[in-house]
Amino acid sequence: MAEQRKIIIDTDPGQDDAAAIMLAFGSHEELEVLGITTVAGNVPLSLTSRNARIICELCERTDVKVFAGADRPIARALVTAEHVHGKTGLDGPTLPEPTMPLQTQHAVDFIIETLRREPDGAVTLCTLGPLTNIALAFQKAPDIIPRIRELVMMGGGFFEGGNITPAAEFNIYVDPEAADIVVRSGVPVVMMPLDVTHQLLTRKDRVKRMADIGTAPARAMVEMLEFFERFDIEKYGSDGGPLHDPTTVAYLLKPELFKGRNCNVEIEVKSELTVGMTVVDWWHVTDRKRNATVMRHVDADGFFDLLVERFARI
Ligand code: RIB
Ligand code: CA
């Protein structure tokens, strides 16, 4: 067996976050989840920390420790997304309250301590929510940045625009200052923007394949997706909802599913009209530093084949 890739998942679950975590749990040969850190985003921190533990217990992975992080953005009031994810953030299935403990160590300190324990380039960060925890860790301990192999983020949008304002995608919009710190930090960023995730709709045939797996985690995921997708179906008449967060883990498992290019990304933090916008120099019209690999195309069928195959292994 090839050496497992060490990852930390930073998340604001969220049904699509749950799909990403479950994809990682179904890929234990390739991925070692060093820990899950939670952040305020889709719902407040107390709920994202509850939801992360519910997902661990659903997948019988209470060996993975969950650490609570920032309860609000660095410099702004928290904006949440109950309108998409429901009041608990994990609406859909009826799942028991978690009994596994929430770690007492703060998520930012867990990230710093874990990275300091590893050699350079050893750990991959998968970020599924606002980047508050990551930015705070970089501010507190900039020495950890070389320890990071890649930071694979779900966030941003360019040709596809925004989903919380016309210009901004939710994860970046909630904490634009944090995103600005991260993209300027020098950490190798792989960005999965709405340009990719809007190609990954939870069509009925795809959800049916997940239902046919027949296990408790798969059944719960189907109920999560059936709740999560109603927002996009009702609003856009689309054939399902976009499955955002699992793109980060899928990239680690099968990077060939994605196509993009290295370019400069900057974050709008000032303009009230476009705050949170990821300004992507896709056509290289400036000489700004090419600080991110921005993905634009994905093999959607290959992505869902991977999800179904790995969900069945949980
Ligand atoms: O804009 C989509 C992103 O915002 C996803 O990560 C979703 O879970 C929410 O956090
Ligand atoms: Ca998320």
Structural description of this entry:
The protein has 13 helices and 10 strands. The chain is an alpha/beta fold. It has a single domain (5-311), classed as Alpha-Beta Complex (Inosine-uridine Nucleoside N-ribohydrolase, Chain A). It has an 8-stranded mixed beta sheet with strand order 3-2-1-4-5-6-10-7, sandwiched between helices. A two-stranded antiparallel sheet has the order 8-9. The longest helix is centred in the first third of the chain and has 14 residues, at 45-58. It is globular, with a radius of gyration of 18 Å. The two termini are 18 Å apart. It binds alpha-D-ribofuranose and calcium ion (CA). Calcium ion binds next to helix 1. Alpha-D-ribofuranose is lined by residues 12, 14, 16-17, 41-42, 128-129, 154, 163, 169-171, 244-245.
Number of domains: 1
Reading the helices and strands in chain order gives: EHEHEHHEHEHHEHHHHHEEEEH
Assign the CATH topology: Inosine-uridine Nucleoside N-ribohydrolase, Chain A
Shape: globular
Q: Approximately what portion of the residues adopt beta-strand conformation?
A: 15-25%
Q: What is the name of the CATH class?
A: Alpha Beta
How many H/I helices? Answer: 13
**Quantity of strands, as a count:** 10
State the distance separating the first and last CA atoms.
Answer: 18 Å
User: What would the average pLDDT be, to the nearest integer?
Assistant: 96
Low-confidence stretches: none
Give the bound compounds. Answer: alpha-D-ribofuranose, calcium ion
CATH architecture descriptor text: Alpha-Beta Complex
Largest sheet: 8 strands, mixed
Q: What is the gyration radius calculated from CA atoms?
A: 18 Å
* Fourth CATH level, the homologous superfamily: Ribonucleoside hydrolase-like
Structural class: alpha/beta
Spatial order of strands in the largest sheet: 3-2-1-4-5-6-10-7
In which range does the helix fraction lie? Answer: 25-40%
